[in-house]
């Protein structure tokens, strides 16, 4: 089955074309087709795709915070030793 984004784009295009035409019968037909596409979007019960895979943990920000052993970590989780002079 095609995705929600595809159907939403198609429905938007049909509605724009319906607004631009002066033929009321054509406009009514285009609006009806857009409503059918909207119904297909609503009928799709798949979850919306997220930009992050479900098994990936969100990035933890530890930058600037001291760890228990005096080490620091950057935003990527790389451990850094403090500079000693």
Strand arrangement, major sheet: 1-2
Determine the mean pLDDT: 75
What structural class results from the helix and strand content? mainly alpha
Work out the helicity level.
Answer: 40-55%
Rounded radius of gyration (Å): 26 Å
Shape: elongated
Query: Can you tell me the residue ranges where pLDDT is under 50 for at least 5 consecutive residues?
Result: none
The rounded distance between the terminal residues' Cα atoms is: 63 Å
DSSP helical segment count: 2
Structural commentary:
The protein has 85 residues and is mainly α. The protein has one domain (4-50, 60-72). It is built from two helices and two strands. It has helices at 4-20, 24-43, and strands at 72-73, 79-80. The protein has a two-stranded antiparallel ribbon with strand order 1-2. Strand 1 and strand 2 (79-80) form a beta hairpin. Helix 1 (4-20) runs antiparallel to helix 2 (24-43). The longest helix is centred in the middle third of the chain and has 20 residues, at 24-43. The model has no long low-confidence stretch (mean pLDDT 75).
Give the secondary structure arrangement, pairings included.
Layout: H1 4-20, H2 24-43, E1 72-73, E2 79-80
Antiparallel strand pairs: 1-2
Question: What keyword list fits this structure?
Answer:
mainly alpha, 2 helices, 44% helix, 5% strand, two-stranded antiparallel ribbon
